[in-house]
Design a protein that fits this description.
121 residues, alpha/beta, Transcription Regulator spoIIAA, five-stranded mixed β-sheet
């Protein structure tokens, strides 16, 4: 599931579940909505992503590239090492700012993952 919310300067995309080939049919509509909002900052909340393949990575890359062409920035919040690895393998990690300070909260329906662990002291 993908939810979009906005403020005057930011669009936030919250992704829950898998971000993969099976979800690709919704990517064009979501992309069009986000690009149409024309916000300078896109925050992609990945705290509840359970799996991402190269199709999901291509979706995120297209969002980041569209924002960069307009002079904006894309932030990944709550991305686990496995998702960052997929983006790195695709050669696209430099398109994103990584929010290393964010700590995902466990909410209703969220599955605990390694990203929920507190930062080492």
């Amino acid at each position: 599931m993908i939810e979009i919310s906005t403020s005057s300067t930011t669009t936030t995309l919250v992704i829950t579940g898998d971000l993969d080939l099976a979800e690709r049919d919704q990517f064009p509509e979501v992309t069009a909505r986000i690009v149409g909002l024309r916000r300078q900052l896109l925050v992609i909340d990945m705290c509840r992503v359970t799996f991402m393949d190269s199709t999901g990575a291509a979706f995120l890359i297209s969002l980041a590239d569209a924002g960069r062409r307009r002079g904006g920035a894309t932030v990944l919040r709550g991305a686990a090492d496995r998702e960052l690895f997929v983006l790195e393998i695709c050669g696209a990690l430099e398109l994103f700012r990584i929010d290393t300070d964010h700590r995902c909260e466990l909410g209703a329906g969220a599955l605990p993952t390694s990203r929920d662990a507190p930062a080492p002291a």
